[in-house]
Amino acid sequence: MRIVAEKLSFTYNKKSKFKVDALKDVTLTIEEGSFFGIIGHTGSGKSTFIQHLNGLIPVEKGFLTVGDINLSDKKKIVRKRYKELRSKVGMVFQYPEYQLFAETVYEDVAFGFRNFFPDADKEEEKRAVFETLALLGLGSEYVNQSPLDLSGGQKRRVAIAGVLVAKPEILVLDEPVAGLDPVGKNELMKILHALHENGVVKTVIIVSHDMDEVCENCTEVAVFSEGEVVLSGSPKDVFKNTKLMNELRLGVPITGQLQDSLSEIGVEIDTDFSRDDFVEKVVEYFKNSK
Amino acid sequence: MISDVTFGQYYPSKSFVHKLDPRIKILLLIAYIVMIFLAQNFLGLIASLLFLTVVIIFSGVPLGSVLKSIKTILFLVIFTALLNILFYSPKEGDTHLFWVVYLEGLISAGFLALRLVSLVMGSSILTLTTTPVSLTDGIESLLSPLKLVKFPVHDLALIMSIALRSIPTLANETERIINAQKARGADFDSGNIIKKAKALIPVLIPLLISAFRRGDELGDAMDARCYSGSKVRTKYKKLTLSARDLVAFLVTAIFFAGVILLNIYELNVLAYFAKIWG
Question: What is the ipTM metric for this complex?
Fold first, then answer.
């Protein structure tokens, strides 16, 4: 499913003194199969944008389609397709472990499955829950535990499983690794990549303000600032705009900073800003210059 | 949808009413409530409504925000008014209109509704023009005589201010959790009442957990700063009375006296107007 937004605008508290233009003419295409990164500060409109993708915020102005569902169509039929849309576009909010509510891990994960597949029988449900938990590296020993007894990283994976169990094609994650320790961050990112590569989900969209994280993981990037998309493209195309990224106070990944410092002393490195590629190019450069 | 819980929401401005001492505002609100209940006839009620209008004008709060506060009690107002009309026990000489409806019943229902509405509007003016912090400061100061009988006034005020402060936070949290569960296919709008109530469980439990968590964290943070609410604790903003407060007090006193006089001399006033127009 491809996501196309054209001149999408949204204003909070429209009639009041506190009105905020959260999105201003956002035009953005997210291709099926991409691992998409959305970057921006708090209040840049990125959260508002992703909440449009599964109809949590109805389109106010502009044009938005997700797959064959036209969300800017104001007719009632679109609202009826919200459920279908929400099963296709899985949304994992910030700190998703705070949404856990059931007595056991099994029940919590099954919640989403029952909502989206009310006609499925117990066997199917069981299979779906166990499979999803396994995808997130959680064995069957966890199913009967209370989600509140798990560690932070495990809770988060259970919460993601609760979204993934609906078998979405697009998985949207708002700051998926925020608050995790470095090992937990790495693990979760690896899991997301595995989901993406094995085709469990076709498209992954992550929201982040960690440039390194986005640069290392994403194939496409869009930069939000004050409700507008200021830059978009491959990480290479985006992060070469060091000056603009610094002006937006987002900065560039560590490799971008190094590239900048190197170019000041006359060493030009052409890299896609991923760590491996950068190291390779630097080594190559010094080999050649010898 | 949840974020527009207007009842009790502060409307930032620097108006005359905003700058009044919160203690005075609380006392004047009490006086206003007494005034409404003292008013025995429409003239008195009109006088107190006039007072309310003056206050609203000097508060700089748009009328819409004040009227919104009525929305929450509209059902109550209509319900009590209806009861008053339907169960009016007629006296000799009342005008019978139709069925069980009497003109006097209609009048007393209207009177009651007007009373309720002006009560709520007056109270909402207080919360619209006073920040929760200064409101609790005011209450604490007003209740301070109770310290003599070992009543924990400061603790009470602290609990109140934390409770008030938590409302918007929890409202935000609720909205977030609702969105998260909607994204997991939860349906809050369809089905019968039992189904709808059941659908709220996935919202209420995380909300409760998070309220406890927040309470715990706040307690730890207060402990870490050695907070004890002891007697030697000083205030950052001391409440002081100014000329403004005196003016507000006098204006209220005049209206108050006016309402009492109107109670006594209602017929005379009516006769006077009748003479002018007649």
Answer: 0.87
